[in-house]
Amino acid sequence: MRQATAPPPSAAEHQAPPDVATMRETAHSVLGPDDAPETTPPAGDELETLTTALRSHIELLAPEVEQAAGRLSEDAPTRAAALACVGEARGKLRAPELTFAGLGGGVMYARRLARVLAALCDHYETVSTGIVRTPVQTAFDQLAEHCLRCPTCRTVDEQGAHAGLPCDEENRLHEAYRVARARAAAARLARRRAEDTV
Question: Which single residue of 54, 128, 153, 198 could bond 147 by disulfide (Cβ 3.0 to 4.6 Å)?
Answer without folding.
Answer: 153
